[in-house]
Specification:
- The chain is built from 14 helices and 16 strands.
- The chain is α/β, with parallel strands linked by helices.
- It has a 10-stranded mixed β-sheet, with helices on both faces.
- The N and C termini lie close together (10 Å).
- The structure holds NADP nicotinamide-adenine-dinucleotide phosphate (NAP) and magnesium ion.
Length: 402
């Protein structure tokens, strides 16, 4: 049988450290034997970002805009220690931040559910995907500590110079004040990314805020979501048989805990920060979380939620065998290939993506897994293997399934 053909290239963003090693091994063992892989390759490894003065990151984001689908390996976000370690020209910005800003995208994180690794919440049977708004609110705030006898006011100067003024508080004793903002444009982009993604995976979309207390600020989020839904997405949702559902954040939390999963939960910036850690932990492991960046005009970038697994990399450099979990990175590839297949109408490529995921999950369910999962798995018969053995076991199964 010949290899599966592609039409449009996938934008491939290589990365750093242990995940860069995994990247190569996944391609060699699981993809290239079956697919005549077409990619446009960008090396986002830190040495090349430094060499190109980070131009490669911007170029890769533009390529995703052009072709529509990218797959990204984890990358180092430099700090002072990395500047020294890699002798960098400067402390380059987070590639994920740069790409997210250029695509104006929202990040969706979903756990990979597998038999033997049971969520802490016993009712959860299907993954819960969290979408976090990544702009404004408390993350772009202004805050001041005030002393006794202070008057805090909120003043907004309009384009014509007119002022709106409201008293925040008259302080008898000391205290604190905070000013924060969001923009209609950013909220609308967030909403469109959420509606697009829900349609793309055919799952219900939940959105929640605290509009009963925050009658202007949070209410604005609720209104923008509702307007965009009614005007642009309602009929597509009805056709797909999915639902958009708004509720209070407290009610959402209660419903999430009683649910069986299988939906997307859109969160304001702070809620998403907190709730994504809760969901990830309750589903089992960061090594089993996927992440996809979706732009409001429907461009997709798939990756693993974890980082470059530095500690394992240093062991690998010493020649020690490592047992790094490649599952989230494999699912980044399968997710990207499936989306490419959908856009280009390639049934055999879509089927390959399904088989790749099936082979990976069946390998774990048969008791062969990386060592991080051994601690979590409730299977009676299980064996912790190193990364290469794990990938070989998946490859053998995939061969059978194809
Ligand atoms: P990390 O790479 O996610 O790893 C933290 C720890 O979690 C590891 O040491 C390991 O624990 C465990 N772990 C994570 N992924 C695993 C996997 N696939 N298999 C097995 N164990 C796994 O986070 P970090 O060490 O904080 O960050 C390392 C680098 O990654 C940093 O330079 C950071 O900037 C970057 N980063 C990149 C992204 C991204 O590109 N999306 C995201 C986060 C961080 P044990 O050592 O106990 O086995
Ligand atoms: Mg957090």
């Amino acid at each position: 049988m010949g290899k599966i053909q592609m039409i449009t290239p996938l934008v491939e963003l290589d990365g750093d450290e242990m995940t860069r090693i995994l990247w190569q091994a996944i391609k060699e063992k699981l993809i290239l034997p079956f697919v005549d892989l077409k990619t446009e390759y960008y090396d986002l490894g830190l040495p090349n970002r430094d060499r190109t003065e980070d131009k490669v990151t911007v170029d890769s984001a533009n390529a995703i805009k052009k072709y529509g689908v990218g797959v990204k390996c984890a990358t180092i976000t430099p700090n002072a220690q990395r500047v020294e370690e890699y002798n960098l020209k400067q402390m380059w910005k987070s590639p994920n931040g740069t790409i997210r800003a250029l695509l104006d995208g929202t990040v969706f994180r979903a756990p990979i559910v597998v038999k033997g690794i049971t969520p802490t919440v016993s009712t959860w049977k299907k993954p819960i995907t969290i979408a976090r708004h990544a702009y404004g609110d408390v993350y772009k705030n202004t805050e001041i500590k005030v002393s006794a006898g202070s008057l805090a006011e909120l003043v907004v100067t309009g384009p014509d110079g007119s002022q709106t003024r409201q008293t925040i508080h008259e302080f008898d004793g000391g205290g604190v004040v905070m000013g924060m903002h969001n923009t209609d444009k950013s909220i609308a982009s967030f909403a469109r990314s959420c509606f697009n993604y829900a349609l793309s995976v055919k799952q219900d979309l939940w959105f929640a805020s605290k509009d009963t207390i925050s009658k202007v600020y949070d209410h604005r989020f609720k209104d923008i979501f509702s307007e965009i839904y009614e005007n642009e997405y309602k009929s597509a949702f009805e056709q797909a048989g999915i639902e958009y559902f708004y509720t209070l954040i407290d009610d959402a939390v209660a419903r999430v805990m009683r649910s069986e999963g299988g939906f997307i939960w859109a969160c304001k910036n702070y809620d998403g920060d907190v709730m994504s850690d809760m969901i990830a932990t309750a589903f089992g492991s960061l090594a089993m979380m996927t992440s996809v960046l979706v732009s409001p005009d429907g461009k997709y970038e798939y990756e693993a939620a974890h980082g470059t697994v530095t500690r394992h990399y240093y062991r690998y450099l010493k020649g020690e065998p490592t047992s790094t979990n490649p599952v989230a990175t494999i699912f980044a590839w399968s997710g990207a290939l499936r989306k490419r297949a959908e856009l280009d109408g390639l049934d055999s490529l879509a089927e390959f993506a399904d088989r790749l995921e099936q082979a990976t999950l069946e390998t774990i369910e048969s008791g062969i897994m990386t060592k991080d999962l051994i601690l979590l798995s409730t299977l009676a018969e299980k064996r912790g293997v190193n990364t290469d053995e794990f990938l070989d076991a998946i490859a053998a199964r995939l061969e059978d399934l194809m």
